[in-house]
Amino acid sequence: MLTDEYVKRVYAQVEQRDGDQPEFLQAVREVFETIQPVVEKHPEYEKAGVLERLVEPERIVKFRVAWVDDEGKVQVNRGYRVQFNSAIGPYKGGLRFHPTVNEGVIKFLGFEQILKNSLTTLPMGGGKGGSDFNPKGRSDGEVMRFCQAFMTELCRHIGQFTDVPAGDINVGGREIGYLFGQYKRIRDEYSGVLTGKGLEFGGSLARTEATGYGVCYYTAEALRVLRGDSFEGKTVVISGSGNVAIYAAQKAEQLGAKVVTMSDSNGYVYDPDGIKVDVVKQIKEVERGRIKEYAERVPGAEYHEGCSGVWTVKCDIALPCATQNEIDGASAEALVAGGCTVVVEGANMPSTPEAIEVYQKNGLLYGPAKAANAGGVAVSGLEMSQNSYRLSWTFDEVDAKLKSIMETIVAESLAAAKEYGHEGDLMLGANAAGFVKVANAMVAQGVL
Ligand code: NDP
């Protein structure tokens, strides 16, 4: 509920201006509902118009991406880059290639990114970008030509000190390689302008694993501090079978849990003996196939059509790692009915507001995306540092820094939750801790 007058007024303005961007409104509302005690304690934020400025991107670039497919036909997609907030560092955030991408989706992701990046403790502002290009069924050559066309325009707006994009849905190592190559060719500059690069050309060890591993480090720490518990012996349900899902599954298993499901946009697999992550990696990372093939290869595993059924599988811990709004109120009720007491978000905004209400009503341990999945961008920040130093840290060094950052995020979220009178509330704490740092920087830098 919005109760604070200043917060209500700014939210009404956002509704009026951006009423056609439901995901953006959802992200803003969730943050506004939780930062009211912070705004009430800091009247200087209203005086400096912090909220009005926070919800308005510093810049949005929207552009045509024309490219030629394998049949020689001209294809036209839309490209976007939202440079949301640079108060604490250069814009930083991934690129998503998916047919559902539009300005509102990129704005919701960019807005979340501001507070997420702040939570990592590293100096990174918030940004996000992408295209409605659908890489499914496209050849390597088509993906390369699309990436080159996309970067031909994007390269005017980014740079190692300005804006440093990375991957997101459907943008992995292959796409980052093509994007980096085109940037280098056009700008004649070899710099850390993108993160998630290949290890041969400036990438960081442990970046591929970082988001999924980070989700588990965060979950393990929250379980330890709030419940004196761990992953050991727990049954875990994971959605998605992409970058975040695969490495969350791998780490959860290393920490002693049994992961029993993974999914894609067609359906999910259930393996009562525990998902064999190497089989999923072969299907998804090497063959770019469908999760259905897992059940064809692993005896005892079942495949079910449709995505929402995954939340009806009995578990102790759920890690949604696919996409936004994948858990609605009914799916959240199904999780609770199946014994789930922990939901930690690997994907961005995977829970609808109704789902979050169900978690809260039933006392679940709920780890919100902008805190729990910050490990990816945190290691991207470490990749930027290594590029600047012109050296590479070992896997173990990066992994140790990642673990420490995730533990700090839990500690800072809990400290902020306590300070603002909501002890134990990881969502309020994450929003408050992330917001205060950005707000103070905005006040200090004057009206921009
Ligand atoms: P990938 O493209 O590697 O994987 C995405 C997975 O989610 C695939 O299994 C995909 O299935 C599934 N998926 C995508 N859209 C839908 C949909 N509409 N319904 C059901 N399933 C869907 O992406 P990532 O793993 O990188 O990203 C997953 C989530 O994590 C996103 O929300 C992203 O924003 C977030 N995230 C990613 C970070 C990173 O470092 N990569 C960092 C922080 C957050 P299919 O193959 O059928 O499309």
UniProtKB/TrEMBL annotation:
Q: Which Gene3D superfamilies match?
A: Glutamate Dehydrogenase, chain A, domain 3, Leucine Dehydrogenase, chain A, domain 1, NAD(P)-binding Rossmann-like Domain
Alphabetic keyword roster: NAD, Nucleotide-binding, Oxidoreductase
Q: Where does substrate bind?
A: 92, 113, 116, 167, 380
Record flagged with keyword Oxidoreductase? yes
According to UniProt, where does the site described as Important for catalysis lie? 168
The record's InterPro entries line, in alphabetical order, gives: Aminoacid_DH-like_N_sf (IPR046346), Glu/Leu/Phe/Val/Trp_DH (IPR006095), Glu/Leu/Phe/Val/Trp_DH_C (IPR006096), Glu/Leu/Phe/Val/Trp_DH_dimer (IPR006097), Glu/Leu/Phe/Val_DH_AS (IPR033524), Glu_DH (IPR014362), Glu_Leu_Phe_Val_DH (IPR050724), NAD(P)-bd_dom_sf (IPR036291)
- The reply on keyword ATP-binding is no
Q: What is one Gene Ontology biological process annotated in the Swiss-Prot or TrEMBL record?
A: glutamate biosynthetic process
Q: Which GO terms describe its molecular function?
A: glutamate dehydrogenase (NADP+) activity; nucleotide binding
Positions of the Glutamate/phenylalanine/leucine/valine/L-tryptophan dehydrogenase C-terminal domain: 204-446
Q: Name one GO cellular component term.
A: cytosol
Q: Binding residues for NAD(+), per the UniProt record?
A: 211, 243
Pfam family membership, one: ELFV_dehydrog_N
Q: Which residues form the active site?
A: 128 (proton donor)
Q: Which NCBIfam families does the record match to this protein?
A: PRK09414.1
The family annotation for this protein states: Belongs to the Glu/Leu/Phe/Val dehydrogenases family.
Self-association or partners: how does it assemble?
A: Homohexamer.
Q: Which protein are we looking at?
A: Glutamate dehydrogenase
Q: Which organism is it from?
A: Bifidobacterium leontopitheci
